[in-house]
Amino acid sequence: MVLAAGFGTRLRPLTLERPKPLVALGGRCMIDYGLDRLAAAGVAEAVVNIHYKGAMIRDHLQRRTRPRIVISDESDAVLETGGGVRRALPLLGEGPFFVLNSDMIWRDKGEDALLRLAACWDGALMDALLLVVDRGRAHGYCGAGDFHLCADGRLQRRKQDDQAPYVFTGVQILHPRLFSDTPEGAFSLNLLYDRAAAAGRLHGLALAGDWFDLGTPAALSAAERQLQGAG
Length: 231
Fold this sequence. Notes:
27% helix, Spore Coat Polysaccharide Biosynthesis Protein SpsA, Chain A, single chain, globular, 231 residues, alpha/beta
């Protein structure tokens, strides 16, 4: 699943006329980077949720053939990340599935990160597996970090007024059982991360390459310069 229903308020004024997933980076729409990575990893079908300027996203995605696109229409409600995935569960099947944000890209060093995530997944131990990146490789990110990565692969959230070495990339594998007893309507996926962490079932995998946060115009411009410099 690719999360594409947000308003993109941090990217204004770029998102006043078009939704965040259709903002260009290097001559391509942001959403296509994630979808291309899914296709390269062998994902045949991707669910994309839409809300803000959703018709524009729907029209754009009609041009794609890989992966096959299924739209989860949220035009009737603002559901946030957790509520959006919950609504899409009937389209996602009974097994674990990838979830990607539409406002980030990454460069691998070595094996493809999605294939590494899939190989690392262990449903007996995990309800959620998050791809995290060292703060030093998180370009455009200015925060205090999100998680500590334990030796056994489990994640612990950063305490308030503290710092953590790893940043969540917005790339993950989730199991549908994580959504048991979740509320109707809007809620954040953070609710489920905390639930999984409390049960010892929130795990992480460190990205071996570089990650780019594209959430603001300044970060978008910086990412474009760096990616052009890399050839």
